[in-house]
Amino acid sequence: MKKVLLFFFACFLLINVQAQIPVNAIDKILSITNMDYDMGRISAGKPLEYNLVIKNIGTDTIVLQDVKAGCGCTTPKFRAGEKIVPGKSTFITLGFNGGANGEFSKFADIFFSGGLSRQVKFHGFAVADSTVIPKPIIANNK
Predict the structure, then answer these.
(1) Total structural domains in the chain?
(2) By the 8 A CB rule, do 44 and 128 touch?
(3) Residue 59: domain span
(4) Is residue 7 situated within a structural domain?
């Protein structure tokens, strides 16, 4: 039983070590703007978008492979397979459907060639749209 547990622990440890690249390693290769974007106060239910700019500050070409949103309310727009040569930039647009009431925090994971990845976040506070004036209720007097 101890050997089985030791085997599973070793496998778990090996998988985690291979899957993680130190954060500072990607920071020496890519510069990403708006990694923790504050949307501020937004109208609940009103969709909006913002851009992330990714610049290759390394010496090798990097390929943007995928962007996975943390939930269905977040929609990424990007060019899968796009090559980012050293010194050049690209962008990713993250859309949020506004489906929140009160404070919200969302994330997306960006995957690049060479096993590189980065998680980006955005947050804000959704409020009822104050520009919408409810229709008056008219009583039917018969």
Answers:
(1) 1
(2) yes
(3) 22-127
(4) no
